[in-house]
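Just scan my protein:

. . .
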Amino acid sequence: MVYRMLAVNIDGTLLQSNGRMNKLTKDAIEYVHRKDVQVALVTSRNFYSAKKVAKALKINPTLVAHQGAFVGTNIQKPLYVSRMPEKLTLEIVQLLEKVECQIQVSHEKFILGNRVNLPENLLGRAVMFMNEQNIFSQHYVDSVSEELAKKPVAPPKIDVLFNSDRDKEDLFSLIADMFPEVHPISRMGMSLSIVPKGVSKWTGLLHLANQLKIKPSQIVTIGDSLDDMEMITESGLGVAMGNAPFELKKAAKWVTRSNDENGVAYMLKEFFRKQHPIAFLEKMNILK
């Protein structure tokens, strides 16, 4: 089998525990790219946060961001984007505001959040970042629902951080029951992400693969968390990090070292060293 695409999760996989990318990992990603393999970074992060990580690489990988709801390399011309309707977003936020939690309505161009448990330097002001000649703002207000009522938003994702496990469990069930149009995703700790129904890291990756005419069996995926499970099991070669939970390791076809032991670099160099560049294989008429 010749693999045409590499999809790598960011946090806990591409990045070490300190949030940095090891040089060996950068070199390995670029090594695979030189073999004409398409590279995608797959993440629950928003587009701009993922883009910041991507800039550490010498290549320009496609981003499957917002848990798979946004796919592309350019924020102005996405290859794919799925959004929650404005009215639905407002109704979900109004429900979330009935408990104490931190809410972030995550649009690809900005984040709108409430002021609960935020550092003082973020309160009451917009934090601006320059990226691709656009301005990315993180704007925090007293009431997210009141802001949405004045300025409706159709976001790809909503992130929530609760103060208790009980609140997280209760709201997870309520949202799943009351809003069949969305898909709540339980994350580590007391975090919850909400995306449009049918959205996942794997479905976002499939949109990219379909446009590039790449089969699922020709994709190598690497991840470390349970929300990577679908892409680990459905891709041609699913790889779990050494720091991944047992369930993910059990489902993977390959288990590599941890993110702090350069697991991505180790796997890629071991696996792809025997694969010739795709352009060469096509020139030799070996690929069908």
